[in-house]
């Protein structure tokens, strides 16, 4: 397989243009009783301190807080996933030890807990959809058809959850809106993990799977 650098750069420019042209989401267009805000991994271990903490993720706190307040004002409930690993988690062979269950790192940041009551679901993998507690929530809330997903990381936990959720509803022949606002997702910069590039790639992969990519939520 050859690598055509010009084609790759041209494609990247087209992707950037596509994302720049995404519309805003008006929160008023969603039925509050059919909508939930899903906050992914806005926790101390990614935002503030720890082996996987990132200033890019920390900078996402104000926008996440704004959207959470907006949802609260419009009577939209919120779920917050929190990485919470066993000490012998197999994931630590891929990533440094982080967010061990019961530690400060695994807790949702105070800035969000102070805004609204959150249903917190701990997760021991990158994909919160797989957690039994989320599966139970999904079965007990069949009225929810709109999911606004914010948090981190765009190319890992957010992408996996959004794509799996969309595939689940497709499998069930249920029309559901899975929505990701560009302003409220982020990833980290480290080595060959280039945040700017991987944000674009992840957003485009989600868009290709039927996830609605919007500029922001108003």
What topology does this entry show?
Layout: H1 5-20, E1 35-40, H2 44-47, H3 55-58, H4 61-73, E2 77-83, H5 110-113, E3 118-123, H6 132-140, E4 146-152, H7 154-171, E5 177-181, E6 185-186, H8 195-208, E7 212-214
Parallel strand pairs: 1-2, 1-4, 2-3, 4-5, 4-6, 5-7
Helix pairs in contact: 1-8, 7-8
How does this model look, in words?
The protein is of the alpha/beta class and 218 residues long. It has a single domain, classed as Isochorismatase-like (Rossmann fold), CATH 3.40.50. The protein is 38% helix and 17% strand. The chain contains eight helices and seven strands; from the N terminus they run αβαααβαβαβαββαβ. It has helices spanning 5-20, 44-47, 55-58, 61-73, 110-113, 132-140, 154-171, 195-208; strands at 35-40, 77-83, 118-123, 146-152, 177-181, 185-186, 212-214. Strands 1, 2, 3, 4, 5, 6 and 7 form a seven-stranded parallel β-sheet that branches. α7 (154-171) links the parallel β4 (146-152) and β5. α1 crosses α8 and α7 packs parallel to α8. The longest helix has 18 residues, at 154-171. The chain is globular, with a radius of gyration of 17 Å. The mean pLDDT is 95.
